[in-house]
Amino acid sequence: MTKKQLAFNAWFKVFIIFSAFISINASAADKNNFDGSYNIKMEDSKCGNLGYAFKLKHERDGLSKQSAMFKSNCKTNSNGQYEGYIYPKKVPTMRIFWVETSQGVTYKD
Predict the structure, then answer these.
(1) CA 83 to chain centre
(2) What is the rounded CA–CA span in Å between residue 6 and residue 108?
(3) Helices of type H across the chain
(4) Rounded distance, CA 36 to CA 98, Å?
(5) pTM for the complete prediction?
(6) Are 86 and 98 in contact (CB under 8 A)?
């Protein structure tokens, strides 16, 4: 191989690695983890239970039917409390945030 071909091959390998890195990081954010920081899966029993409790609270408050909403993943804040959000099935970019309290969950300011 010529020097030019070797240089191109090296550049191409860097490009492939960089592309894979971007792809992996881009997939970390989705409708259940919109900014990449909600890394506790909703399958975690505490996260799932709190998210469901918030969906019910939102319904009791007369704001939506719980069946029309999805739960997000969770994260912990600096106080060690779980946080998450719910979003309408039809409008996944609209988020209603919640935070864990000693009584369960409430709307996050």
Answers:
(1) 11
(2) 55
(3) 3-28, 45-60
(4) 17
(5) 0.71
(6) yes
